[in-house]
Amino acid sequence: MKLGDKIPKDIFNELEASTFSVLPFIQQLNQKINENVEIVAKVLSRKLQEAKDQKRFLLMTLSDKTGTIRAVDWHNAERNFSKINEGDVVLAKGRVVYFEDHVQLNLDKDPESLKPLKDSEYDFRRFVDVTVRDIDKMYNDLKALIKDILDDELRILLETLFVEDTQFVKQFLQIPAGVNVHHAYLGGLLEHTLDVASLCKALSSVYEQFINRDILITGAILHDIGKVREYRVTQKGFEVTDEGELIGHIVLGTEMFLELAKKAALSKSKSMQLEHIILSHHGELEWGSPVVPKTAEAFVIHMLENMDAKLARFRAIGEKEKRNGTDKLWSEYDRHLQRRLWLGGID
Fold it and tell me: Which element (helix H / strand E) includes 143?
């Protein structure tokens, strides 16, 4: 299946670029030590510094969807510093070296060794991945879960947002569930939401005597809706919005839900339970939740959404090592999971 087939056509057309670069990705540069290369990358940081001999040089961090690399310009430091900004996408030319236990790109003497690019000059897929699952099928599966809600108030509330609000649906189908840690690809939020809601549906049959099935599934579907306002998809990749930085998806999602519940005239008891699920789904105060889960349904959603996020991280690390053709049995230490991962089972 082609990339465009996995994404609704109007979304794909908005993001499509006119050219496609065949230049190497950053993670491939460790195989090109002492070779001259060209790469397309985004400038994460740039800084003019002085060496011991007082010669000024430009130190940059460049990135694409596969990783980051330190780049150094010893030849045109001030000139190149003035013509680029953080967030710019550039064409960088230089020699790949190994320095201080890191792969590094030393820019060429050519004044054009660092060139800012227009959106039309590179392919957005250099910075954005896409779910390997079929987006249309996942969306239909989510709508089937909503249709299966027995409580009329809750079902209608979900249909108002996830079926009738076409602008919300368009954003929800695009954005990632995170920009770095988990499900960091187009369709990531849909994938994460569907999987958590499906897990909740399965678990509700085990604990049916004291778990409210419809509240549980509805809360699972709603728990991350604030991310449609926290993140945006651009030609340069995924970015956090201003309100995402200043407010965050938990509060944004709570605001969205309360507005929706008011319009739907949802009963106070159901509204309060669902609001609590959104507010508490990170589980702990130190993890960003303003309150810890205090209902069985909120506790289940926290545990399952946390598990789904961590398993996605396990999968991403294993798949990356597999693509790199590694024969290692253990990954590097992952600061998000706070452990190394055994790679012996990635096949």
Answer: helix 135-147
Is-contact 30 40, C-beta < 8 A? Answer: no
- Could you write out the DSSP letters of every residue in 304-315? HHHHHHHHHHHH
Q: What is the DSSP string of 15-66?
A: H--S----SPPGGGGGG-TT-EEEEEEEEEEEEEEE-TTS-EEEEEEEEETT
CA distances from 77 to 45, 53, 109 (A): 14, 15, 10
**pTM of the full predicted structure?**
0.81
Structural domain for 104, as ranges: 25-126
**Residues 38-56: tens digit of each pLDDT:** 999 999 999 999 888 888 9
Within 13 A of 94's CA, how many CA atoms are on the CB side? 29
CATH of the domain at 42: 2.40.50.140
Write out pLDDT tens, residues 211-267.
999 999 999 999 999 999 999 988 888 889 999 999 999 999 999 999 999 999 999
Structural domain tally of the chain? 2
Q: How far apart are the first and last CA of the chain?
A: 22
Backbone angles phi, psi at 237, to 5 degrees: 120, -155
